[in-house]
Every structure is written in structure tokens, then in C-alpha cells.
Design brief:
alpha+beta; elongated; five-stranded mixed sheet; Ribosomal Protein S8, Chain: A, domain 1; 5 strands
Length: 231
């Protein structure tokens, strides 16, 4: 009977260990290992080197610095020399040339004339060497007009001063074709076209004038002239 009692106790102990309803505690050694694995001290590797998140960020920043230094290793700074301040040269005021009317003897070059043309008379003139094709283009108004002077209604003395200065200014600006409005002289009566006759003579005597023709009707007809100047 004593033998059976001991056997029964041993059997009960075995069955109690196999009971699924009763938790089976982990061995003390396994619990200790798990605790050691989760311990902050074990986050450091051999030699006490920390491999945690902060250490990873530090390593990344150090890698960036090394990469930047490697990239700019062969870059040399530019040698910048400040430019010496050079004072601007003083502005020289150029005196405007005196108008042609002030230096040319208008009495000799552009004399007052007696009228000899009629209001509706068409005018045309060209110097030797001007081709007929150029004159045809001028008569048809195909040469661009780059300036205009209106003289009709003025007397000869005032008109010749304005015309001389206008021709000089047009030449200085590089104009090739200009228009001069002299009027038809309808109000001159039986005397004829006074200013028209004077302008016809003045332009023929002016050195810078190569040719002129009466304008198209839309630009003044026989009361205006297309004037071609030297290049």
C-alpha cells in the first residue's frame, strides 16, 4: 500500500504538470535571458559602441559631411580683384553748328525771283547721272518721305531761310527724300505762283539736291515737291 501511495503521488505530479488549464511558468533562466535581451545595456555592441537610433543619425550626418568634402575637394576659390574706380570722363558740350542761313549768302545762292510759273504747272528736275528709273520712282511717290516742310503762305525772304535750314538738317539726319510744300499761288492773282517759282529756282541751285518732281495729288499735287537728296 505504501508503494502504491508513492506511485500515486508521482503520477499526480506528472498529470498536474500536463494540465492545460494551469499556466506553465517559464524557467527562471529563460526569463532572465529575455530580460537581459530587452535591457538598455545590451543595446551597445562589443566594446561599448552604441548602435541605437541616435547613433545612426550621427553616422548619417558624418557621412554627409564626408561626401560634401569629397565633392568640393578639387574646387578652387575664385580670385576676385576689386575693380579700380575710374572716374567718368567729363562731358563735352558740342556746340550746334550755325544754321546754313547764317553762313550762306542767301542773296547769292537763293535770290528773290519774279514769278514765272503757273499754279497748275508740273515741275521736274534732275542732275546728270540720276537714272530715269529713279526719277520715275520719285514721281510716283515710291521713295519713302522722311521729312516735310510747309512754306505756303510765307513771303520769299522768310521761306528761303526756312528752306535752307531744313535742307541742312535733313542732310545731317541722313534723309534721302523730303517733301516741300510751296503752294500753288492761287492768291497771287495775275502775278503767277510767286513762292512756287522761287522754290523751283532755289532747289535747282542747291548742291545737295539731286532731283525733284511735283508730288502726287494725295500729297499736294502741283503745290508740293518730292525732293531727292545726295546720299
Amino acid at each position: 500500500m505504501q508503494t502504491l501511495s508513492m506511485a500515486g503521488g508521482a503520477m499526480g505530479t506528472i498529470l498536474e504538470g500536463l494540465n492545460p488549464c494551469k499556466p506553465n511558468p517559464s524557467p527562471p533562466t529563460m526569463v532572465k535571458r529575455r530580460a537581459d535581451r530587452a535591457s538598455p545595456k545590451n543595446s551597445a555592441g562589443a566594446g561599448g559602441v552604441d548602435f541605437g537610433p541616435k547613433a545612426a543619425q550621427g553616422a548619417s550626418a558624418e557621412d554627409d559631411r564626408l561626401a560634401f568634402r569629397a565633392a568640393v575637394r578639387d574646387v578652387k576659390p575664385l580670385k576676385h580683384k576689386p575693380k579700380a574706380l575710374v572716374p567718368a570722363p567729363p562731358k563735352v558740350r558740342r556746340r550746334r553748328p550755325a544754321p546754313v542761313s547764317a553762313v550762306v549768302d542767301l542773296e547769292a545762292e537763293m535770290p528773290l525771283v519774279d514769278p514765272h510759273l503757273t499754279p497748275e504747272q508740273s515741275l521736274s528736275f534732275h542732275r546728270s547721272g540720276v537714272r530715269d528709273q529713279v526719277l520715275r520712282r520719285l514721281r510716283r511717290g515710291l521713295v519713302p518721305v522722311e521729312g516735310e516742310l510747309d512754306l505756303h503762305g510765307l513771303n520769299q525772304a522768310r521761306a528761303r531761310i526756312l528752306l535752307a535750314d531744313f535742307l541742312d538738317a535733313s542732310k545731317a539726319q541722313g534723309a534721302r527724300c523730303i517733301r516741300v510744300i510751296h503752294g500753288k499761288g492761287m492768291r497771287s492773282g495775275d502775278r503767277g505762283a510767286v513762292l512756287k517759282s522761287a522754290v523751283d529756282l532755289w532747289l535747282r541751285r542747291h548742291y545737295e539736291v539731286l532731283a525733284f518732281t511735283s508730288a502726287k495729288a494725295i500729297d499736294g499735287g502741283t503745290g508740293a515737291l518730292y525732293v531727292l537728296l545726295r546720299a
